Amino acid sequence: METSQRNDPDGAGCDLVTVPARQGLEAVDILRRGTGDAVGPVLHDDGGCTLGFVVPAGTAAGWDVPGSTCTGTDGHGLRLSPAPPVEGSDWLLPPGEADLATDPAVLRRALGEAARTIAAADSCS
Fold first, then answer.
1. Against a cut of 0.85, is the pTM above it?
2. Cα–Cα dist 29/85, whole Å
3. What percentage of residues in the chain have a pLDDT greater than 90?
4. Which of 21, 24, 53, 18 shows the shortest CA–CA distance to 112?
5. What is the pLDDT of residue 38?
6. Which residues, at least 6 apart from 3, have a Cβ–Cβ distance to it below 8 Å?
């Protein structure tokens, strides 16, 4: 991740990758176990259906991971503060306890690994 994105003090340089909660929780676990791979703030909705990973601005333009969406904020609407930026959500990993944003390439790999893990677990049922 570029240093400028890591040091953006008000979070204006962020997009949001949204994934199903099961895959997202697995990806968070993968990222937190990783060596040197940091995870940024992560939102979850109150219904528990989705997780949102804060990623650097501009990620949405090239995001193409099946089963996920990336919403560009163009520096508007997403501020990293202790209060969740979206009504009906809460922080799983709040700002201040995580890096500023998750590297999109690292997130892409973690989501792929999470999808494979879930598929393997489901095939054993």
1. no
2. 23
3. 45
4. 24
5. 78
6. none
Task: Please name which of 17, 15, 5, 2 lies closest in space to residue 77, comparing C-alpha atoms.
Answer: 15
Neighbours of 85 (CB within 10 A): 20
Average pLDDT, the chain: 81
| Nearest in space to 43 (alpha carbons), one of 35, 51, 31, 33 | 51
Residue 50: is it exposed, middle or buried by C-beta count within 10 angstroms (0-12/13-18/19+)? middle
CA pair distance 118, 122, nearest whole angstrom:
6
What is the C-alpha to C-alpha distance for residues 95 and 101, in angstroms, rounded to an integer?
Answer: 9
**pLDDT, tens digit (0-9, with 9 covering 90-100), for 7-50:** 344 445 789 999 999 999 999 999 988 766 678 999 998 787 99
Tokens of 117: 């893990």
Q: CA 44, CA 46: separation in Å to the nearest integer?
A: 7
Residue 66 backbone dihedrals phi, psi, to 5 degrees: -60, 140
The helix/strand/coil state of 58 is: coil
